[in-house]
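Design job #97: recover the sequence.
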């Protein structure tokens, strides 16, 4: 239980640092629900954390029905991640865009992978990825990259080509690191 709580706090903190510190200064997108919340943030100045939590509610309800253990980890993970996203919003690191894309994605990927490894999540599309990976031979990193790519393409219309290019680098970096940190055992289960 202690390891799960620590993974949730550390993972959420890493996501908050990755998103605010590296993605927001260049209007880059993470994928999934946080990516949708970032689009709302860039255009309407909505709070990213609050909106990521609100947009995650249907997925959390699905987890309630399908996997109560994942539900508890996800609802708490969603709340903690939302708090870190909004709490760390003022902390930005103005690095060159390509460095920010790689570092932001890597840091977010480590956070997501760590959370998923201990049966918790942000409640966003990584929760969908968890259920798909549990039911198929697909790697969780690949699933996250595909879902995140869809969100980044949605952002193309509003953010433009450069944002899509560098956001794609971000999601590839995030997907790779999430998969490495998750390290799904052969039997499809994750540590408790």
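Job complete. Output follows.
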């Amino acid at each position: 239980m202690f390891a799960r709580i620590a993974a949730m706090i550390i993972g959420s903190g890493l996501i908050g640092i990755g998103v605010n510190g590296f993605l927001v200064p260049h209007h880059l997108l993470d994928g999934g629900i946080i990516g949708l919340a970032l689009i709302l943030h860039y255009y309407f100045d909505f709070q990213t954390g609050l909106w990521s939590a609100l947009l995650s509610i249907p997925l959390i309800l699905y987890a309630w029905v399908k996997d109560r253990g994942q539900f508890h980890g996800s609802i708490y993970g969603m709340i903690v991640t939302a708090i870190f996203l909004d709490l760390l919003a003022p902390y930005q690191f103005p690095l060159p865009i390509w460095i920010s894309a790689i570092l932001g994605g890597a840091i977010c990927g480590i956070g997501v992978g760590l959370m998923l490894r201990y049966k918790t999540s942000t409640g966003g599309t990584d929760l969908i990825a968890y259920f798909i990976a549990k039911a198929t031979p697909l790697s969780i990193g690949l699933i996250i990259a595909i879902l995140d790519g869809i969100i980044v393409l949605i952002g193309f219309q509003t953010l433009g080509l450069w944002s899509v290019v560098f956001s794609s680098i971000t999601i590839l970096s995030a997907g790779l690191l999430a998969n490495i940190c998750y390290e799904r055992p052969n039997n499809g289960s994750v540590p408790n």
